[in-house]
Every structure is written in structure tokens, then in C-alpha cells.
Amino acid sequence: MTRYDSLLDALGETPLVGLPRLSPRWDGDAPVRLWAKLEDRNPTGSVKDRAALYMIRHAEADGRLTPGCTILEPTSGNTGISLAMVAKLRGYGLVCVMPENTSVERRQLLEMFGARIIYSPAEGGSNEAVAVAKRLAAENPDWVMLYQYGNAANALAHYEGTGPEILRDLPTITHFVAGLGTTGTLMGAGRYLREKAPDVQVIAAEPRYGELVYGLRNIDEGFVPELYDDSVLTSRFSVTSYDALRRTRDLIEQEGIFAGISTGAILHAALAVADRVAAAGQRADIAFIFADGGWKYLSTGAYDGSLQHAAERLEGQLWA
Amino acid sequence: MAIEVKIPTILRSYTGGAKSVDSAGDTLSALLDNLDATHPGLKGRLITDDGGLHRFVNVYVNDEDVRFTGSLDTALKDGDSVTILPAVAGG
Fold first, then answer.
1. What is the distance in angstroms between the Cα of A318 and the nearest Cα belonging to chain B?
2. How far off is chain A from B17, nearest CA to CA, in Å?
3. What SS3 class is residue A70?
4. Hey, what CATH topology would domain A8-41+163-308 get?
């Protein structure tokens, strides 16, 4: 059934698509296969639609959100766009606190949806956006901050949605790979998969940005999301802009799929694991999250010219 | 044995401003001891009093987080690259 009563009902149930050309061994006795969970097929084109809908529904259910409320959220973009869509359909206002070093497409989309954007300084990246949002929340007690970094409904969306969908479609799964930001996808889907298939390895790919983003004044200003529980993970990779971009180009050239930059980073980690398993002669079915398509990053120059130049243009940008 | 250690901006006061320094060690723990000998005080910013990695410090060997590869006991070999980064928010 592909008919839905509303856009929100069409959220989730995304396709899991094999990558026969990028996989180390697609056929044979010990295949090592990669599978992309195409989360760009969600209503606003990213995996964040799942968390946005869950966080809003849970806040409605527990009475924090009532008609006409204003939602406040620190976001580097995709969560903001997803919240803006759900907020529009459910009748809420939205204020996004967004680092100024995010792509122009994100700003344009948020404005189209009617969200108000408050910029936080580029230095310090999302850490600053979180700090500014917490200040605004204290100054505006009638605003409702959903706070994706610590909101259990964020992880629950993946525990009840993404995880079960993947296991149903790929019962032979051996590895799950996703991006590490709020950690919601990894904590939710990772917990579900480990409960149902205890041998599954859960692998995180986190973006490694330019130095500007790590511009803290001291180590104690660092940030670990409240949702994060490292016992859910089995390994964690830091992926440079260069490697992430390289994989977006591999995806286009070999599989015909146009990916966003964070998906390139996730694929890079997935391939690192795939190559290890293949070298050991073992079999694997590796599912990874295709977080969004490349459309929102065209203006950054990420897809133009040499990889080296493209990676340099991303220096100082938040791309996940 | 040379292992490149990438230093984040926030800790470059310990390396005379250098973005990366060479050091040596069979394990991450030994490497940090050697680093501290040449750049006194650096280890104290990475390791807490109880001997574990600081909560807001991430250390990667060849891009893999050492918390999942044996932490301070992670084995090192010639040509490895160690990256130290403060933990920052994503999303």
C-alpha cells in the first residue's frame, strides 16, 4: 500500500537498497554486501523527519506542546527543516538556532517553511547553537525546547521505526552503520538491533570538521549528547571531509546515487568495516543510513572540481 | 618509531603552536607518557585523575576512536596517526 492520508503518514518505511558495485563481494559463498537505507525518501528528504515527528508527538502526548505553542531547537539544519514541516502541519511556530556556517539551502528551506532563524557564531559549531538555545529557553519560558540531544523520543523513533524496518528487510544483518550527531539514530536502532540480533556490530561515523568548529576555549566546554551511551557501539570512526566527499563521488559513479556529505562519511566507515571482513574471508550484510541527498549542499561546491579543492571549500562548514 | 600526533587548537599552547608533533610508543599510554616528557602538561589535559580519558576528549588512531579499541592500551605501530580532538556537538 503506497497511499497515505497525509504527508506525516508517509514518513518512514524507506527502501533498503543494495550496492552491488561498491560491495567488496556481492555474490559467492561469503558475500560482503552493503545496503543503503534511503532516508532521503522521507517527506523533507532526511532521516531527521523521524525524530522530529516523534519528539513533537511525545511532547503533545505529555502536554508540553499545546496548540499555538512556539518550538525552539538548536540544529545545524536537517532537524530544523523536519521540525518546520511537522510544526506547520500541526500548528506550531518554530525558532531554530543554527550555526552561521551551514549551507544556504538549509536557510532557504527553513524560511520557506516559515521558521525563524537565530544564528549562533561559527566558532564552536553546534556547541554554540546548543548554548544559545539554552539561554533563549531560559529567557522565553513559554517556548518549548524539544532538545534533540537529550530527548528520548529521538532515539525511540529509531528503536520503533528504523531498527525494526532494517531487521525485517535484512534478517541476515551483521553490521549497522550510522552517523553520530545527536546519537539518536545509533542509540535507537542500535539498541533494537542488538536486542534482536545480539551479534550485530553497531558502528558510528562522526564528521571531522575544520579547526574552526573545534574552537572551544577549554576542554570543559566540550559536549557529549545526553542520549549517548557508548555501550551500544562496537566501534566509532572519525571521517574527514575529503574521505566523505570521495565516497559521495563513488556512490554517484558506481551506483548512481546522489548523496549528501554525511552519507559519504557513513559509507566511508561502512567500507572500512567491509574491507576488514572481506580480507578475513567472512560474510557480512552491512546496512548503513543514507541520511540525505546532496541537493542541500550544491552551493558549498562540495561536488565541483577536484576532491582536494572541494574539501578545502568545506573547511569551516558544518556538513552533517 | 615515529607516530604523528595531531594536536587540536585548544592544546597547541603545549606544542609551541605546532599542529602536529612526532612521538613514539608501543601503546597509546606509552605514547602519551613520551609526549608529556617533551611537552610537559599535555597528558594532564587528556587524562583524568583516575587515569581514564577525559570525558570531553576523543583520541583516534588511524581515524578509529580508541575507546573501542582498548582505550589507553591501544597498540601502536610505526606510521600510525593519532588525532586528538575535543568532543563537540553534531546534529
1. 9
2. 14
3. strand
4. Rossmann fold (3.40.50)
